[in-house]
Amino acid sequence: MVNQNDEKRWAIISLASVPLIMTLGNSMLIPILPLMEKKLDISKLQSSYIITVYSVVAIIFIPLAGYLSDRFGRKKVMIPALIITGIGGLIAGLASWKMDQPYTVILIGRVLQGIGASGAMPIVFPLVGDMFRRDSEASATLGIIETSNTVGKVLSPILGSALTAIIWFLPFFSIPVFCAASVLMIIFLIKNKKKNEEEEPLRFKQYWQLIKDVFRDHKRWLIAIFIIGAILMFILFGFLFYLSNILEDKFDIDGIKKGLLLAIPLLALSIASYVTGKKIKDNLTLMKWITFIGIVFAGCSVAVISFMDHFIYLLIIFLICGAGIGMALPCLDSLITKSLDKTVRGAITSIYSSMRFIGVAAGPPAVAVLMKQNIIWMVCILTFFALGAGFLAFKNINPE
User: Fold this and answer.
1) d(C-alpha 379, C-alpha 272), whole Å
2) Residue-wise burial string across 261-272, b where 16 or more C-beta atoms lie within 10 A, e elsewhere
3) Crossing angle of the two packed helices 74-98 and 103-118, in degrees rounded to 10
4) C-alpha 21: how far from its chain's center?
5) CA distance 388 to 400
6) Is the confidence at residue 189, as pLDDT, over 90?
7) What is the number of structural domains in the chain?
8) How far apart are CA 28 and CA 397, in angstroms?
9) Most buried in the list 79, 273, 275, 343, measured by CB within 10 Å?
10) pTM above 0.70?
């Protein structure tokens, strides 16, 4: 007979599978875009749309998914979302395999993946808050969720390159397989509440009023966390884009070797997220100061990018940046998940997820533009954003 601890452990594994799959579904394609350009006979701008359309669609649909999850239940939104994500990958894969000009249909498949992503990963945060009544358990689980998210980033360049070495469009077909595994785990390993514990769903007017009440009472620290989340993702993905290009353009390091080097600092982010989630428990004051210190680490690392032009130095700097961001993210997740009533938790955490997706989408193109100028411009702007995030954490996150 399965005991309660085993049930919780398997439920956490099921939850952690969602951000892992969503991250793989997007990041796995980044290192193989140059090959897609050749196979599909498209430009670099067109290939960038394969990545961008995923994030843009997710940003648009995330708030709707949050509302639906609050009204109808987390699993009732998450499971169809994962199925839609799998269908999107299947469409993109079949188009690449069977069609002579598959680019437009691939984009349609990516749109479906983005819609699915909007109802999958962002729902994980409120579901953790629903499942774990003890703040220490919720914080530890959110640390694992962030770790899983980062592990996806670590694996993406390696797995994407390995699958492409077999068949160039195989990464598209891998997504339905991953999604099917996650759906089965969520169905069988995450239990629904008993019917007598379910509250009557709120009408939209009541629901909207509750959200307005939440922002009226908590807007200062909520908006601060939204902005900090966006800035940290902006810095992380901007820095990752910069490092990826520098390794290839200046040091002639590409393919799986480049993926392995990029995995080193991302692994530091994973470890920092996991350890932070374990340590913060329900200590809100500790969450604030770890967030602030993590932002300081990230800010200091981007401020010294231009001091030395060597790939070992850049990896070390990115390692420090990743560790700092890894410290901050579980704290932000816990603050926003455990401080809100469950009736609006899905909507508020969805707005937070949207802000993070904005940072993910904006970081690489912004850094691409800045890299054409003097490197000092990139350093100054990233440092400025880090200073802003640090100020918001210090001034506006007040645990009392």
Assistant:
1) 24
2) bbbebbbbbbeb
3) 170
4) 10
5) 22
6) no
7) 1
8) 35
9) 273
10) yes
